[in-house]
Design goal:
Length: 285
Amino acid sequence: MAVSFEKKTNPYPHWEYSNPEFDSLIRIVPERGGLITEWLSEGKELLYFDLERFLDKDKSVRGGIPILFPICGDLPEGYLISGKKYFLKQHGFARDLPWSISLLKDTLGIRLKLSDTNQTRSYFPFFFTLLMDVCLKEKSLQISVKIYNQGHESMPFSFGLHPYFQISNLQKIKIDGLPEKCIDQTNMKVTHASDQIRILDKGVDFLSYPSCSVKLFDYLSRNVIELIHQEPMDTTVIWTDPPRRMVCLEPWTSPRNSLVTGDRKLEIKSEEYIELFTTFKYDSF
């Protein structure tokens, strides 16, 4: 059976891309920040998605895979470019803007595209194009990103994804693969990842520096989600928001405030581009 790519209206307007070979599909709402709202692998829904909140456009999204660009986290004091200060909202603007969507030429996935506008240049003074290719493979979602700097100045930025994975019970999960130390983003202090994992059901927000792979085990559903990193998008953020039955397992390039601190800040020279990769794998045990 061939892959399908079509626009649907229920239960909300979206595009659906499916690959029957893997019994997998994704649903995407390009108008709402290029948001992937659902991912089914072998017929099993893996993402958490608060549809009621999504339908209230005055509220921020809780669920799916929001896209973070040109910063991850917040930038409370703004940042300087050529002596002028600019301010960006939490996680940047990509998750709030309309993207375009198309089928990849090889039909193995879809492409989302975002370019600068007069509005974006008022708080991020750069000319850019961002392409995000999302491919369904067997038990996995492969994402590749190309960011082009089409201006005359070097462009600093961070990029990340904010996927919400549904789980059965926050007290019945395990996370493997994190380094021993992490940064508690509620107070920006160094702490132990094991201590954070013990209080997932109380709500956590912590960042771990590079690792190759992080696995999320759900003991009740017996699902395993593996985040496979590739440099430079190899920083992991874990976030929980009880009582929501979800864990955010997020690949970032850089920590919050990196445009100011320079910590893992990325830059693209004029007329050049950078490519980023990440993979989410599903399995059961």
